[in-house]
């Protein structure tokens, strides 16, 4: 059992680190393309596309755990590997994103708010609805909300994807289950 824990921790940390670096690289590419300042619509689409990063990292982490255990993987082992990977990405991605939001692109939330205000007005939203949405975006842009969102989002996404991949990749004794 001790070896299984070591294997899942190693795979989780390795792929979590790669995920963290991938998030940082993705953010910088999107920033350099101007999608977090001058083309927020493209940035929003890029953010949706970026979901491929945790999908790939968690799948590969769980697959590596199974491979290193001779084809054996239980659902709890798969889930644990994915959670370790998700949590291991945070010490890399979170400080980078804080620095990004404070030093590299400190006006990112202002750009997002201006985009959303114009989008809602163009769609005929009431001024009160626009004001409420803007206030919500301001609150979500605060450091505390960003940290809570990163932790909660990472845990929920990691748990959901890990459960799915653990079920799909589950094998016992080298035979497909």
Major sheet summary line:
2 strands, antiparallel
Secondary structural class? mainly alpha
Query: How many H/I helical runs?
Result: 7
Termini gap: 21 Å
Helix fraction bin? over 70%
Radius of gyration: 19 Å
Shape: elongated
Count of the separate structural domains: 1
Number of E-type strands: 2
Question: Mind explaining what this structure looks like?
Answer:
With 177 residues, this protein is mainly alpha-helical. The protein has one domain (2-102, 153-176). 81% of the residues lie in helices and 2% in strands. It has helices at residues 2-32, 40-49, 52-68, 75-104, 108-122, 127-140, 143-169, and strands at residues 171-172, 175-176. A two-stranded antiparallel ribbon has the order 1-2. A hairpin with a 2-residue loop joins strand 1 (171-172) and strand 2 (175-176). Helix 1 packs parallel to helix 4 and helix 4 (75-104) runs antiparallel to helix 7. The longest helix is centred in the first third of the chain and has 31 residues, at 2-32.
Based on the model shown, name its key terms.
two-stranded antiparallel sheet, 177 residues, mainly alpha, elongated, 81% helix, 2 strands
Q: Secondary-structure map with pairings?
A:
Layout: H1 2-32, H2 40-49, H3 52-68, H4 75-104, H5 108-122, H6 127-140, H7 143-169, E1 171-172, E2 175-176
Antiparallel strand pairs: 1-2
Helix pairs in contact: 1-3, 1-4, 3-4, 3-7, 4-7, 5-6
Sum this structure up briefly:
The protein has helices at 2-32, 40-49, 52-68, 75-104, 108-122, 127-140, 143-169, and strands spanning 171-172, 175-176. By secondary structure, it is mostly helical. It has a two-stranded antiparallel sheet with strand order 1-2.
